[in-house]
Amino acid sequence: MQTNLADFIQHTRDGEEADAILRKCVHCGFCTATCPTYQLLGDELDGPRGRIYLIKQVLEGQPASASTQLHLDRCLTCRNCETTCPSGVQYGRLLDIGRKVVEQQVARPLPQRFARTLLKEFLPRRRLFTPALKVGQWLRPLLPAALKNKVPAARPAGVWPRAGHARKMLLLDGCVQPALSPNINAAAARVFDALGVQLIVAPKAGCCGAIRHHLNDQDGGLDDMRRNIDAWWPYVESGAVEAIVMTASGCGVTVKEYGHLLAGDAVYAAKAARISALTKDLSELLPDFQEDLLRLLPGAVGRRVAWHPPCTLQHGQQIRGKVEGLLRALGVDVQLCADSHLCCGSAGTYSVLQPELSLRLRDDKLNQLQATQPEMIVSANIGCVTHLQSGTGTPVRHWIELIDSALARR
Is the pTM of this model over 0.85? Predict the structure, then answer.
């Protein structure tokens, strides 16, 4: 694709990156076949190829419009198109650049500004979100259905292990996950404790930065990233930990990109690259302990589950097959549904900002998952777990909870 970037972005870091990405696109259209919003809406501008054209026009100096903004807003950032693309177009990075420029040019209506500001200032702050969620859970029986969907029933976390071990790893506690599903991180800590590894939560670490970054407050997102790096660095610098564990694939894909996102920061660039290199999803770590888990769980776990691989795991981090392989080795009957590569519609704050599209995608995904007749649906991201659970009576859990409960029944 030939480009002629406008003066305002030429010779900038964003401009050089966008130019290189645009030039890789060969207009083949393979991406449209796997784009969830294109499948629903059938509009070229609601598929990756169309959005790439819109971004190219804006970066070449054509003024953005509210229509441009709408088509970019409708993108889930699922990055399915990156998996499909034969040319290696890094669409997600181009979209971030395009959205930032469009946000600077197009003033949003007041209701949109209010909703987006509320989300980026409220969700990442646990001291605000956690008590508000508890009030919502207390009032849940009285809430209208649309709001009840966003307030999952309270679930206990169980006991956090207190034993110390020579092997240690950091664990990102996150922002909304400890309130929405506190058992996920506690389950991970218990499983690793049984394997002789201690998970440590750095007190000052919080939101990974994804919420603000994807709401076009990219400076605020970078500040969240710097805070986490500062919280983790003493452990990393001293060599006390061997990895940084992610139980939410949405956080994992973001932390793995710290090195890229902070490459232009002279103070944090080297540290960010080191943090990204140390960051591992649970599914990258636990297969190394498979023999130990088999010794701890000699009998087959014996559950039939439908595995929902989050987009942030299979497309963002390009991790496939690891969860299914481990669970099957432990005796779990793991089913993959039809079109398992497609997004469930959660996509961070997308389910709040684009509710109609999000619910259509959720219901389509649940129909496919339920067709496998599972006892339980398991996933690897808190957003997917909460979103899917809002539309079904079948239990939806993080896959680490399945292993934790099997260990508890020994």
Answer: yes
